[in-house]
Amino acid sequence: MIIRILADDASLALAAAEQAAATLRRAIAEQGRCRVVLATGNSQLAFLHSLANMTGIAWNNVEAFHLDEYVGLRMTHPASFRTYLMERFIRKTGIAMFHGVRGDAPDLLGAIREVGNQVTATPIDLAFVGIGENGHIAFNDPPADFEVEDPYIVVELDEACRRQQVGEGWFEAISQVPTRAVSMTPRQILKAREIISVVPDLRKALAVKMCLEGEIRPEAPASILRRHPNVTLYLDRDSASMLSEEVRQAGAS
Predict the structure, then answer these.
(1) Mind listing the pLDDT tens digit for each residue in 149-195?
(2) N or C: which end of the chain has fewer CB within 10 A?
(3) According to the model, what pLDDT value does residue 247 have?
(4) CA-based torsion, 214, 151, 95, 164: positive or negative
(5) pTM higher than 0.85, yes or no?
(6) Is the peptide bond prior to 143 cis by the omega test (within 30 degrees of 0)?
(7) Residues 47, 37, 95: CA angle, nearest 5 degrees
(8) Rounded-to-integer distance, Cα 33 and Cα 124, Å
(9) Mean pLDDT in the chain?
(10) Which residue ranges form the domains of the chain, and what is each CATH number?
(11) Is the dihedral of CA 94, 72, 126, 130 positive or negative?
């Protein structure tokens, strides 16, 4: 794992976007398209804005998926991750092939199978992954299931995860936050050829420490990223503030 620590969220977002853009251009040049997985949340806003403004990317040759969606939440709700991506990235870039996770589908299991078949049809070239305050990746809260092979599963959201959504302003009260979500699984995330993880903010410092230090374990879901051979973790000074000097200097093994 490569760890890059930058001064602030703006610098982090730009550096991560430049790396992502290079991967997108290279994949399109070599194979005619690039398949990506998109992350959401407040931590991804500056990064996605920077990436959408990168030049020289044939966005019409990009096929996009996303990591997770609340069960039962319609796209008209401002906290819908499909709406988040459509408004902040898909429409801005002109991506035509976007496979949303339909958490409000009448046949939820059928919708999960459909998007699962689409995401596994051919390899994912690039995945963007944030890390939650409780250490989750996608909506895989601790203890995460590191063994399930399905590309997407329905998960129960823990209280810490739901409180984060209130703290970020997506809901007014925890009672409004859905208790279940559809989430891409850890094993499916690790199938991407390259992973870029963008994690700014002081409130993520403990989760970053759990990701990079100690054992790889379900209680620290993001720690599984250390099993992937091509991950770049972008931190700012705040999110990196709890890391040991050894990890800062050497990265994670």
Answers:
(1) 999 999 999 998 888 889 888 889 999 999 999 999 999 999 999 99
(2) C
(3) 86
(4) negative
(5) yes
(6) yes
(7) 80
(8) 11
(9) 94
(10) 2-250 (3.40.50.1360)
(11) positive
